[in-house]
Each structure stands twice: as structure tokens, then as C-alpha cells.
Amino acid sequence: MPDRTSPAYQARYGWDRRTAANVALAGLFTALLLLPDMPLLARVLGLPLFGGGGLFLAYIGLSRKVAFRVDETGVLLGGNPARYRATTAHVPWSDITGVVLWRQAAGGASVPYVGVTRREGAPPLPGDGLKAHAALRHLVPVPPEVATASRAVVGWHLDQERLLAALARFAPDIPVHGHR
User: Fold this and answer.
1) Which of 18, 101, 106, 130 has the smallest number of Cβ neighbours within 10 A?
2) ∠7-172-151 over CA atoms, to 5°?
3) How does DSSP assign 142-166, residue by residue?
């Protein structure tokens, strides 16, 4: 449960409808693969995919690690729960020039993202390399440097109202792009 009295905004990985549905679906497919008349090849390929994938999604839901935080020091971009320390980045207010809410097409749906634009010369973030920029230039609807300074809103909920309130308190001069 978020602390609604704190001026900081923080969201943690946890259970949402999408995570719960995906874990349930993975569990169903895993159970079906264990039926006696299921071909061996389907078991060999499907059990690691659905069983392992379901367990990983459950781990994310149970981890409760910080996915995103805005406070007096800047913005914390929480990392992938499987490699949390290596992929988590703190961006101080002195490096931030804007906050961006954007969406990435994913098949027939889209995935929401939240990120920051940073001043020229800011230190690199995890995954912020030239090779990543070359690939991202063709894959995402935002500049590569914004994509590497963004986090997918998957496995956690972004409360735009609380985010905007925290930004107004801690960084009133920082523009927010893409919010509704």
C-alpha cells in the first residue's frame, strides 16, 4: 500500500491484474503440459517456458522492490527485479530536464513507460551505450536517450496524479510531457 501522506511518490513491483492473469495462464499451460498424453517435445519446450516464466512473474509480483520513485534527491528508475542492482539508476534533479510519459506498441496493445530527459553530458545510465542507441533509434517512438532513461510500467501501477504532485513539490520547473 503506498504511503499517501508522504510528499515523495513511490511505486513498487507487486500484483496487478496483468501479472496475476499471466501467472494464472502460465500455471494453466504448465498443468496442461503435465497431462499424460502430452507429447514429450511439447513438455521439453513448454515446461521451462511456461513454468519458468510463471515463476519469474510470481517472483516479480512478490519482490516489492521499488519500481519508480520521485523525491527531493531526484528520480529513481527501479531496475529489472532479476538484476535489480545492476539495472537500477538514480537520476539527480541537476541532470533532469524533463519527465516523459510514453507508450510502446506491442502487437495489438501498447506498454506505458515513464522516463526522464537529461542534460547533455549527464553520466550514462545502465544500458545507455552506443549500440543500444543504434537499435533503439528504429524501435521506439522517443529518442534513444529517453528510452534508456525510462522504465516500463509493467508489474506496478503509475499513479499520474501523485506523480504530478511530487514533481510539483520537488521540481516545479521540470516539464512533464505526454501526460493526460
Assistant:
1) 130
2) 70
3) S-HHHHTTEEE--SS---HHHHHHH
Q: Which domain holds residue 125?
A: 65-177
Question: 41 and 114: one domain?
Answer: no
Statement to judge: residues 42 and 71 lie in one domain: no
Kindly report, residue by residue over 98-145, the tens digit of the pLDDT.
999 999 988 888 899 999 999 999 998 886 665 565 666 667 888 888
Cell numbers at 28, concatenated: 494453466
State mean pLDDT over 65-70: 96
Report helix angle 17-33 to 53-63, nearest 10.
150
Answer yes or no: are the C-beta atoms of 145 and 130 closer than 8 Å.
Answer: no
| Nearest to 122, CA basis, from 87, 155, 92 | 92
Residues 118 and 150 in one domain: yes
Whether 138 is in a domain gets the answer yes
- Inter-CA distances, 91 with 74, 123, 171, 180, Å: 6, 9, 13, 24
Residue 154 falls within a domain, yes or no?
A: yes
Strands of 96-106's sheet in order across:
150-152, 109-118, 96-106, 176-177
pTM of the model: 0.81
46 and 70 part of one domain: no
